[in-house]
Amino acid sequence: MSEPTDFPLHLPDMPLHDPYVVADAETGLYHLFTSNLDLSGTPGAGTMVYRSPNLRDWSDPVPVFLTADEQEPWARHGAWAPEVHRWNGRWYLFTTLHDTDAPLPVPRPGEYGTPFPVANYRRSTVVAVADDLTGPYRMLKPEKPILPAELMTLDGTLYVDDAGKPWMVYANEWLQRIDGTVEAFPLNDALDAVAGDPVVLFRGSDASWLSRELPAGVPHQIAPYVTDGPQLYRAPGGALVCLWSTYEKNRLTAGGIDGDYVQTWAVSPSGRLEGPWQQREPLVRADSGHGMLFTAFDGTLMLILHRPFTNARGKLYEMAWHDDELKVARHRTDLDGD
Questions:
Q1: Which of 182, 164, 186 is nearest to 173 (CA)?
Q2: CATH number of the domain that residue 172 is part of
Q3: Which of 19, 176, 181, 220 is packed most tightly, with the most Cβ within 10 A?
Q4: What CA dihedral angle connects 215, 220, 226 and 227, to 10 degrees?
């Protein structure tokens, strides 16, 4: 795919959800991956990319992965939360597909004080590969999910441990567990098969501030604990940080979840995936979340997330470390292009 020469868009112009940025030194461009939308020029479930030389001015989006291009994949819908990672000399796309024709069990009606509002079906993070950052990407295992098919393994991300072993870290969300979790499976070097037993990093209810923020009169046991969008990042002092998103002041209703989306985080001071993990207060509220950290070309640590949850746009924040504590330094509204 050729590099863009025109950058007519600014973040407020760019519909997106679950943004993921790769700062590519080879091209000198930031690549912002998000779910494919019709404005890419090619409709259908998949992934598209916006590109920018400066985080302010962005190209029109182009598709890099489409499920319609796969031969008989196990699922063709969804394509949520794309991430792109460099591994063994190639680029790997992680994105969540779903198959509404493969139902999964749901919690028993009334078990949590209200009829369960959503029908569960198979959702799993797939891995696709390309030689170029802008694709085209092709699924490694189109015939079936890489992780166990009975698990709803959403928002998968790649983590490589100190021994060089790859893991898929994912959210096993409230739709299957009510108290959502962040978990991880070790993968083989080809990233197309499980290579060991899973590890549970933490549960949504481990964030004590969530219970503190419950509305008056909402019993603790019927409030779902959502876990979305994990991303692992190494702090300067060696601690391991996990970004994740959830809803605060939430409650389960007949229509789904009623609450406020937030960007939060946890830290493993030992630096180990197994933890123990300590939950921190949210980084950004105001119906914001599913963020990720990246380093800008000038060395600045940046956070990108989407806000609001519906009709979302990208928001950029400059971040700072205080020892192994992550802080928001400032909201980079100057990059909105207004």
A1: 182
A2: 2.115.10.20
A3: 19
A4: 120
Domain interval for residue 61? 11-336
In a domain, 247, yes or no: yes
Beta bridge partners of 46: 66
Residue 4 counted as domain residue: no
pLDDT at 209 over 60: yes
Q: Which pLDDT belongs to residue 132? A: 97
Q: Average pLDDT, stretch 179-195? A: 96
Residue type at 74 in one-letter notation: W
Q: Tell me the whole-structure pTM to 2 decimals.
A: 0.93
Averaged pLDDT for residues 259-287:
94
